[in-house]
Amino acid sequence: MTTDTEMWAPDETVADTGPRPPERPCDLEAERILVATAIMQPDCVDELGAGGFDPADITTDWLRWAWWAVEELRTAFRDGELKYLAVHRQLEAWHADGRMPTRVPPAEYLMELCNQAHYGAAEWYARRVAKKAVAARVVALGYDAVLKGTSPAFDEDTDVADLQSKLDGAVRPADNADMASIGDLLLDSIDRATTPPTNENRVPTGFIDLDSLLSGGWMPGQLVVVGARPAMGKSTVAQDFARGAAIQHKIPTLFESLEMSKSELSDRILSAEARIALHHLKNGIATDDDMVRAARRAPDIAAAPLWINDGALLSLPLLRGRIRNLVRSHGLRLVIVDYLQLMQAPKAENRQQAVAEISRNLKLIARDFGITVIVLCQLNRGPEQRQEKKPMVSDLRESGAIEQDADIVILLHRDDAYDRESPRAGEADLIVGKHRNGPTATITVAFQGHYSRFVDMAAT
């Protein structure tokens, strides 16, 4: 019997200079048995396809074409017909019209191949083939990593993030991985209807009334947009969200700050947690009482799973790579980005398209990793041009894409930012202007600027 190696000689045109591509891992025995079984038992082609098997994982060209021939003929085979002969005729027809560039093996070869069929074992051999295909993609990725790493044009941000993304894609998801019957979904819905949310499936916001409105807090897969005009305190409320998750509930949280430094954020978190006036910290005039409170809160703050990054440039690939590492190593569940307009924009025809690309990718990051992403966003001058200064969702800069992608939009407003004599001095409104999974409302909280924090109202 002629071997596959004898029929098709390997390509010997690899350049002598530089790293040589490694040999692709494959399981030729499993490929032959799988295709032989498919020819003799054509129904397994549909079954394996529904289970996610990709014939592109078959490395031997003519075997892959034979599989496709079975796909073409599976409903046309006649009772008593020698199936290998029908497959052979189909391969010859494809070769004659130029569709199949590979030489067609003799009919006798197909007959001998079909003697290797293992009835009822197609799924097991398909898993063997798919496993080697994953190994082949990993090996190819390693070669790609060598080429990138040795290139003078190597970029640690984009190249490493690209390799990490490709590594995640080495295992192909099944085509029907996102498909489920309504019966299965209904059982889950009934289960959720009778099971109150816990910290395992919600991230508390740090505010009682907001948690109540959101049925326990932030949900996995959500993109939350917090919008405000400058100097309203959006960075402060973002720190409160981070403190509520990481310090109060020990939920792994990443804070990406594109505006303030790590030391500034650390000072503000200490001020908020220990109730030390922020100007005392900044000016180095903390009192003995301040230090007692700091010592009391320091262990909990230090033990919190909170990571802060203050890199000036934050691109989507870099953010995705950082999130991927923290999800794997520490079970990251909440990411806060301060703020959207300062992120490094991808190449686009205009600013609106660039912002749309950022917001869409932030939503995909939330879904792909099963985490909550909170992104801060500046509002345009719309509120300042109205008699009533309260912001609206339409005030979001480049609001179309941001509003569309967000699951929740919260607008921060303080009357005393416009009128120091306001009867609502010291109060702030968290205006939930969009809530995809529930009602909208305005949550009133207290602003304690000297402690760099917002807190629940006393009556809550």
Q: Low-confidence spans: pLDDT under 50, at least 5 residues?
A: 5-15
The residue fraction in helices comes out at 40-55%
The first-to-last residue Cα distance is 83 Å
- Structural class, by secondary structure, is alpha/beta
| Shape annotation | elongated
- Any idea what the radius of gyration is? 30 Å
Brief account:
This protein is of the alpha/beta class and about 450 residues long. The protein has helices at about 5, 30-40, 45-50, 60-75, 85-95, 105-115, 120-150, 160-170, 180-195, 210-215, 235-250, 260-275, 280-285, 290-305, 315-330, 350-370, 400-405, and strands at about 225-230, 255, 305-310, 335-340, 370-380, 410-415, 425-435, 440-450, 455.
List the helices and strands and how they pair.
Blueprint (H helix, E strand, L loop, with lengths): L3 H4 L20 H13 L2 H8 L10 H13 L9 H14 L10 H8 L7 H29 L7 H11 L13 H12 L14 H6 L9 E6 L5 H16 L3 E5 L4 H13 L3 H6 L4 H16 L2 E4 L6 H15 L3 E5 L12 H19 L2 E7 L20 H7 L2 E6 L13 E9 L5 E8 L4 E4 L4
Parallel strand pairs: 1-5, 1-6, 2-3, 2-4, 4-5
Antiparallel strand pairs: 6-7, 7-8, 8-9
Description of the molecule:
Strand 4 (334-338), helix 16 and strand 5 (372-378) form a beta-alpha-beta unit. The longest helix is centred in the N-terminal third of the chain and has 29 residues, at 122-150. Mean pLDDT is 81; it is low at 5-15. Helix content is 46%, strand content 12%. It is an alpha/beta fold and 460 residues long. It has helices at 4-7, 28-40, 43-50, 61-73, 83-96, 107-114, 122-150, 158-168, 182-193, 208-213, 234-249, 262-274, 278-283, 288-303, 316-330, 351-369, 399-405, and strands at residues 223-228, 253-257, 306-309, 334-338, 372-378, 408-413, 427-435, 441-448, 453-456. It is elongated. The protein has a nine-stranded mixed sheet, sandwiched between helices. Helix 8 packs across helix 15 (316-330).
